[in-house]
Amino acid sequence: MGSSDTVQGRDGLCFFGKVSATISHDVKNVLAIINEEAGLLQDLSLMAGQGMELDPERLVKLAKKIQNQVKRGDTIIKNMNKFAHSVDVPESEVDFYEMTSLVVALFTRMAASKCVTVVLKEGEMVAGKCDPFVAEMLIARCLEVSMDSAGKNHEIIVEVFTKNSERVISVHGLRLEVAENDLQAIEALSKNAGASLIVAPQDSLLEIIF
Predict the structure, then answer these.
(1) Terminal CA-to-CA distance of the chain, rounded, Å?
(2) What SS3 state is found at 137?
(3) What are phi and psi of 164, to 5 degrees?
(4) Judging by beta carbons within 10 Å of its beta carbon (0-12, 13-18, 19+), is residue 173 exposed, middle or buried?
(5) Is 173 left (phi over 0), alpha (psi -120 to 50) or beta?
(6) What is the DSSP letter of 87?
(7) What secondary structure letter does DSSP report for 153?
């Protein structure tokens, strides 16, 4: 039986729904900004038709803003595609650094809403086998718990590395004790993911070990 079979279906659906909602908000924001810039471009065109002289530099800046939003939208869609495919197989070879990078990107909006900055330190490929969807759920839930523990206007630092043949995702920056129900939830998730946890707010540390 794969580890995903042990995950309660509703928890998985709730996680998928939460990420999908976040992505839809991000895409909507991108489209709103593009629409606003296109409207400004239209206004300038109408004024030019009435004889107003156009500033080429202003047009270049407008075009660049639209291009930047298209690139941002493309990155969001690529992340959505990667996340959607994480449910394809119950176990596969993954790069834990790339997986953590994806989860951090997907939860940037949540971090902003909690006024917490999440920094993923540069790292290298950390290969291993796991159930990708369950592992992403675990990483995401641990990030949420860490954000709550860190509190507003603080920073948490995430590192991914190999230690003694184990794959470690380390989160630094915890400040407060983790609530008992949150602790139980992430411990249950870690068992489903085939991982173990170290939660030590006194050392400002949470580690997921695969």
Answers:
(1) 18
(2) helix
(3) 50, 45
(4) buried
(5) left
(6) T
(7) T
Residues for the chain: how many in total?
A: 210
Which segments of the chain does DSSP mark as H helices, in order?
Answer: 9-49, 56-85, 96-106, 108-113, 132-150, 180-192
CB 201 within 8 A of CB 154: no
Measured distance CA(159)–CA(171) in Å, rounded = 7
Taking residue 21's Cβ as centre, other Cβ atoms within 10 Å add up to: 11
Which pLDDT value is given to residue 14?
A: 92
CB atoms within 10 A of CB 164: 6
Digit-coded pLDDT (tens) for 38-84 = 999 999 999 988 988 888 899 999 999 999 999 999 999 999 999 99
CB 126 within 8 A of CB 161: yes
Question: Contact at 8 Å (CB) between 67 and 75?
Answer: no
From CA 150, how far away is CA 134, in angstroms rounded? 24
Enter the tokens of residue 122. 């540069």
**From CA 86, how far away is CA 92, in angstroms rounded?**
9
